[in-house]
Amino acid sequence: MIKVTIYNEYLHERASERVAKVYPHGIHEALKENLTDEDISVKTVTLDNVEDITDELLADTDVFMWWGHKAHEKVPDEIAVRVQQACLAGMGMIFLHSGHHSKPFKLLMGTPCNLSWREDGDREYLWVCDPSHPIVQGIGNYIKLEHEETYGEPFMIPEPDKLIFIGNYEGGEAFRSGCCYRRGYGKIFYFQPGHETFPTFYHPDVIRVLKNAIRWAVSDYRG
Ligand code: ZN
Questions:
Q1: Which H or E run includes 92?
Q2: What digits encode the pLDDT tens for the residues 32-55?
Q3: How many angstroms is it from 191 CA to the middle of ligand 1?
Q4: 196 CA to middle of ligand 1, Å?
Q5: CA of 70 to the centre of ligand 1 (A)
Q6: Which of 177, 130, 131, 142 shows the shortest CA–CA distance to 157?
Q7: Nearest to 158 by CA among 175, 181, 184
Q8: In the prediction, which pLDDT does 223 show?
Q9: Which pTM does this prediction carry?
Q10: Mind listing the pLDDT tens digit for each residue in 115-163?
């Protein structure tokens, strides 16, 4: 069984009716429901109980998934360092959407991770760069999302070890929407879609990619 822990700050869903309509029980619960499988079990943590991200929890987590947006600064530094250290020791990490500005992602990347953005609900194509990669198995040449937030280059990240998707939007922007890294013994996947006002985490191809990424990121080794 692959043990997954999902952190979602869980603020937008409680502050906005529009978001609550899409994710009535929070993004973390939608992800838990859609990602649980015969080989994947899921626990969730929110900002309310962020202190539950202990060394014990991390030692018992194979892959950690992170969604945050407006409260990155409220995650205590020592917890961000704990997550970074667990990743370096071999825990897989998947950062979703605005997790690009989370403390653990910036610690692992070592760069500001800034990007350009526009919230117009553009159609997005996520174009597959390497159809042989385990993360894209079971999807076609691309994923089409009717509406997503536009993230555009330049994206201030280190060069990915492997670029999995390039996102393209109606406005012409392009973005490195799926990036793989290795840091220490840990595998990391950054995946751009997942703005809170759109039903992205119900899209079957998005769920397929996330399940593939979980299975790819898990490691038998923990240093
Ligand atoms: Zn967003």
A1: strand 92-96
A2: 999 999 999 999 999 999 999 999
A3: 12
A4: 6
A5: 10
A6: 177
A7: 181
A8: 87
A9: 0.98
A10: 999 999 999 999 999 999 999 999 999 999 999 999 999 999 999 999 9
Between the CA of 223 and the centroid of ligand 1 the distance, in Å, is 34
Q: Write out the residues surrounding ion ligand 1, Cβ under 5 A.
A: 98, 149, 195
4-25 burial string, b = 16+ CB within 10 Å, else e? bbbbbbbbbbeeeeebeebbee
Query: Among residues 67, 80, 78, 89, which one has the least CA distance to residue 107?
Result: 80
Distance 64 CA to ligand 1 centre (A): 20
Q: How far is the CA of 90 from the centre of ligand 1 (A)?
A: 28
Distance between Cα 98 and ligand 1 center (Å)? 6
Per the prediction, the chain carries an average pLDDT of 98
